[in-house]
Amino acid sequence: MIQEFKTFIARGNVIDLAVGIIIGAAFTAIVNSLVVDLINPVLGLLTGGIDFTDKYFVLSGNVPDGASLAAARDSGAAIFAYGSFLMAVLNFLIVAWAVFLLVKVVNRIQRAAIRQEEAKEAVAPTGPSQEELLAQIRDLLADRANPV
Length: 148
Prior knowledge:
Layout: H1 2-10, H2 12-46, E1 57-60, H3 69-74, E2 78-80, H4 82-123, H5 130-145
Antiparallel strand pairs: 1-2
Helix pairs in contact: 2-4
């Protein structure tokens, strides 16, 4: 069973999956920075300084006026954190768009490589077939065996 597990782990698709998860985690950090550091300030500027991440409604319980989302959560009140949800949706859309663009570029590169390979195959000179070579060898041997 241990040998079977080693074989499973050593297979390429498991390693590819691990690499994908690591790259995905790094990509998530980039997207989070894009949203928090670049998009949120622009949205805040366009909406008059509103920061969506701290927007919520108190459903029940007591929360001091003007308390941050973290403070509202810490107070134990039931809150409806629509700002966090909107930012999660925005993060998802940005990640989905970036993945779409990445897949589009990779597909374009793959198509170009396939076209280049097909062009090489089409241009490559075709030599004589095996039968033609054997016939030439036969004829040469026959000429040497029967000198004129």
